Amino acid sequence: MQLAAQIEELKKQETTAKSSIKALDKNLKTLNNALKQIKKGKKTINSKLTQFNVQSATATQKMNDGEIKLAQGEVQLNSSQQQLDSSKEQAKEAANIKNKLTVANVKALLTAQNFEMPAGYISEGNTQYLVRVGDKVTNQKDLANMELLDLGIKGIPPVKLCDVADVAIVDNSADTYCRVNGNNGVVLTVQKQNNYSTADVADKVAAKMKTLTKENKGFHYVNIMDQGVYIDMVTGSVIQNLLMGAILAVFILLLFLKDVRPTIVIACSIPLSVIFAVVLMYFTGITLNVISLSGLALGVGMLVDNSIVVIENIYRLRKEGVPVKEAAITGARGVAGAITSSTLTTISVFLPIVFTTGLTKQLFVDMGLTIGYSLVASLIVAVTFVPMMSAGVLNKVTQKDSKVINKLQTLYRKVMTRLLNRKIIVVAVTLALFAGSIFGAMNIGSSLMPSMDSTQMTMTIKMPQGSSMEETASMTDTVMKKVKEIKDVDSVAGMISSGSSGISSMTSGGSSNEDQSSMYVLLKEKKKHTNKEIKKEILKKTKKFDCEVEVQESSMDMSALGGSGISVQIKGNDLNKLRSIGKDIAKIVEDTKGTQNISNGSEETTPDLHVVVDKKKAVKNGLTVATIYQQLSEKLKDASEATTITINEKEYSVNVGNSAKNTLTRDDLKKVKLTGTVSGKEKEVTLDQVANFRNSDSLSSINRNQQERTLSVTSEIKDGYNVGKVSSAVQKKIKKYNAPKGYSITMKGEMESIQETTGQIGLMLLLAVAFMYLIMVAQFQSLKSPFIILFTIPMAFTGGFLGLLITGKDLSAIAMIGFVMLAGIIVNNGIVLVDTINQLRESGYEFEEAILTAGTMRVRPILMTALTTILGLSTMAIGLGQGAEMMQPMAIVTIGGLIYGTLLTLLVVPCIYGLFNRRKKKAE
Fold first, then answer.
1. If you average pLDDT over every residue of the chain, what do you get?
2. Where are the domains of the chain?
3. Which of 21, 46, 238, 445 is deepest in the core (most CB within 10 A)?
4. CA-CA distance, 387 to 335, in Å (whole number)?
């Protein structure tokens, strides 16, 4: 059963296998057919493949050839592109005028193009021609169309000035501010040439301005400063004092002589001597100025001295019964030697002028020569005109003697008799008084020049740092209104200049900063208050204003010749140490009584924006610190003149500048473009890419003296204090200050000028005394008599010091001139007195009788000569008239010295004479 089943199973498998075989055979046939087709296709593929390979090889070859050509084309294209780019850059560079036309280049081109100059001569036939090259621009249009540059590029026309700049005629009103009495104005400054008179030029300018006022409606002018007016006022005052002095001198003569005839002779000699002196002044080039006229005024009192001595001697002989002609000849001859010697001694006082320099020489030359000419004239007139006129006028003389003179002579003889018995005591007391006067003089305040009143004052208004012109102008307007409210003020003018306008100021340079203004105050001629009082009123009215107001009492103050106030100069190299020392010295000055408005020399700083260049970044961009500075300064600097053009006969300055300069802000500055060169190519960067910015303050100015940095500590002097005394107090404190090694501290300013002037006048005085002594030795043929006469000088100086002490005047340079004058004047009395004593002794008089008789004889002429000089200077000493303050100290010293010196000459010189001639007295 199982086997049958297996067989059955095998049969089934066999059937299945047969079926499979049949299917396999069928598939095999199919495969054979497919194989045949494959073989057939293979042949076809092989054929196609062979054809494709051939085509592929051909295509590959063509492609390779194409790639080679493409590469070659690409190379050619790149080369052409490079050439094109290079050509473009070259064209751009050629067409770029940015670096070709800087402000500096435009200026240079304008100067070169607007040019005309003769080159030489050529000849054609008999005619010689001047060859002139170029021509100048004559109108604005031609200037605008002036060709500056031709780029040489086809299609690009030459560059004209109007292509790169705005050309316009403008004024400087935007840079300046000027107001006169609240109205807009223009300041016109006129300066005279050296060889012309200030007063004459001022008068002619004033006349022209008046003509313009008449010819032009609405035109108005104000003299806010006129030196001519001041000079006229001062010279007028001096001339008035001169005439008054002459009148008073004649009055003294009439009072003493009690006779009109000799008074007429002297009165006629005065104008003759003055004319003689003025003629000499003219031929030696001395003008009629304050100094020379003061010398002439002083000379008026001395002009009559020689004539008085001569006329008094002639008059005395006539009263004794001597015939008129004989009296004229004998009288003049008898005193000719004495008055010649006295005149020469006075003139010799001014000979040492040749050894002086600076201010001392300026003060003395005109005055010395004027007085010298006056005395020479008076001597010639005294020995010629006076005897001649006396011979005709003094036919009759009054026999009446002046009771006052007689009593005075009697009193003098009695007093002198007693004093001659106490000669040593008299001389000792005199020397003690002189020593006391010197001690008193040491306590007299000193100054360079006396302060003077005038009708003109100046002011400076200083605003806080960084203030704009508009703010300064507004404050100036406010201050002007307040000043104009003062009753004694006639006109007020103010001005500001930004510095680019080129306006020059009238005296002190004006203000060149936008935060400062200058003001000029014109006072009424008949003002009721002094300049000092007006100054206080101005400062009071402006005290609460947000500005600093400085007032100079007089625009004509002579102290400007040598500086005013206190100034301490510090020298050294390190600026920080200088500033530190300056602060210490300023504290010393501040702690000294009498000082105000102290400056340590470093307060006036300027706010700086410091551009700190990063050198590494700069180098990377082809820049250096120097090139950055050059490019930046070119953009910031002011417009400056390149050339000038004349339009309708009016000359205009052509200024070239960067129009954007005034509008730059801090942010604009940071973005200023700079051009550097890297690898031959220009590179542009902004300033803030290569630099940092830092705020700082720096000194407005750094001064140097002998190549060393200097700093000046300054101070004003309070009212009621003396600059000499305060300066001495400061100097004592500074001597105790230990300055670092290499640093020096020196007193400058007015104190330096005072010391220098005092030293020179002291030397001048010593030389003058030496000259006078030699002249007197020649006259007396003796060493003793001139030495006795020289004792009159300390006597006169005692009186001069007393005059200053009594009147409260400072010992100024002008006062010192008075002392020099005294030395020359006072010895004349001594010469006349000693000469008379010697003559009487030679004629047989006993020793003491000769002294008493000579003194009695010479009381009247000595008093007359002294009083004429004193009264001749009296109006000047009182200070009458505008500007009289300048010469007032000289007059006070001279009057004080003459009063005291004349009295002691009559009383003490005889005693000294007696002491020095005791042996001769015993011999007699």
1. 79
2. 404-443+782-924
3. 238
4. 12
What letter represents residue 647's amino acid?
Answer: I
472's CB contacts (< 8 A; 6+ apart) are 177, 461, 463, 496, 514, 515, 516, 517
CA separation for the pair 428, 425 (Å, rounded)? 5
What pLDDT is attached to residue 92?
57
Q: Which helix (H) or strand (E) holds 250?
A: helix 227-257
What is the residue type of 38?
I
Residue of 567, 587, 581, 583 lying closest to 742 (CA atoms): 581
Q: What DSSP string runs through 265-301?
A: HHHHHHHHHHHHHHHHHHHTT----HHHHHHHHHHHH
pLDDT at residue 333 in the model: 87
Query: Which pLDDT tens digit goes with each residue over 362-416?
Result: 767 887 788 888 888 888 888 888 888 888 887 776 655 667 778 888 888 888 8
Place of tokens 């008085």: 308
Report pLDDT digits (tens) over 250-286. 787 777 767 788 888 888 888 888 888 888 888 888 8
Residue 127 one-letter amino acid = T
What Cα–Cα distance (Å) separates residue 413 from each residue in 418, 537, 791?
A: 9, 59, 21
Spatial distance between the Cα atoms of 808 and 889, rounded to a whole number of angstroms = 10
What are the start-end ranges of the H helices in 421-530?
A: 423-442, 469-484
Q: Please state, in angstroms and rounded to a whole number, the distance separating the CA atoms of residues 915 and 420.
A: 9
Distances (CA, A) of 190 to 181, 226, 480, 497, 501: 21, 10, 24, 18, 17
Cα 698 from chain centre: 24
Report pLDDT for 509. Answer: 40
Residue 714 is inside which H or E element, if any?
strand 708-717
Q: How far apart are CA 450 and CA 766, in angstroms?
A: 24
User: Residue 132 has what DSSP assignment?
Assistant: E
pLDDT digits (tens, 9 = 90+) for 797-808: 999 999 988 888
Separation CA 575–CA 581 (nearest Å): 10
Distance CA 311, CA 250 (A): 13
Contacts of residue 819, defined as CB under 8 A and 6 or more positions apart, other chains included, come to 761, 765, 797, 800, 893, 897
887 close to 240: Cβ distance less than 8 angstroms: no
Query: Which of the two residues, 502 and 294, has the higher pLDDT score?
Result: 294
Helix (H) or strand (E) holding 251: helix 227-257
Interacting residues of 345 by C-beta distance below 8 A, sequence separation 6+: 771, 772, 775, 776, 824, 827, 828, 831
Residue 498 clears pLDDT 60, i.e. is over it = no
Residues 619-655 pLDDT 10s: 888 888 888 888 887 777 767 677 777 777 777 778 7
Q: Residues 80-89: contacts with CB within 8 Å, 24+ apart?
A: none
Say whether pLDDT at 674 is over 80: yes
Q: What is the architecture, at CATH level 2, of domain 404-443+782-924? A: Up-down Bundle (1.20)
CA distance from start to end of the chain: 219
Nearest 5°: the CA angle 698, 701, 707 is 115
